[in-house]
Amino acid sequence: xxxxxxxxxxxxxxIRVEALSLRDAPALVGAFTDAALRRWLPVPDPYPLATxxxxxxxxxxxxxxxxxxxxxxxxxxGALAGSVDAKRVDWRAMTCELSFWxxxxxxxxxxMPRAVEAxxxxxxxxxxxxxxxxxxxPGNAAxxxxxxxxxxxxxxxxxxxxxTDDGRVDLVIWSRIPxxxxx
Length: 183
Known about the structure:
The structure is a single chain. The longest helix is centred in the N-terminal third of the chain and has 18 residues. The protein has five helices and eight strands. The chain is 29% helix and 33% strand. An eight-stranded mixed β-sheet has the order 1-2-3-4-5-6-8-7, sandwiched between helices.
């Protein structure tokens, strides 16, 4: 499996998508204490600083180097506003799934749709991916809106396909392919 390309980009309006760093660990811990985020994101509770430090440095870089995925920070005005990651990468088929979250102080500003649009566009146009998917719980209205605004097309629902701390959930499948980027 090839190493995942080391993707970093900046949108026209200054949103930066780049590697996590050790300085992001405290903000990650803070974000993961938010009940609204935890409702959809099954992460350890509590989420210790040591775990965040490991994720931001060693684990995320090992994922990229192994080709298994890539985790990127989303920064706005220099602060960690959220994260987007590619996982379930199939290098033969050139497909992957993205997941994302937004820290509470940055919600409602439209940052995530712009970051996910730019990141998925780079995956398709610059790195040759043929399909980028999102899988979002039907009750996660903000993420469903972000998917649509980021240019993804809703395909259907995979029943009982995901889980949260509250149990199993259906997942709405969204995709973006090269043809979607043709003007």
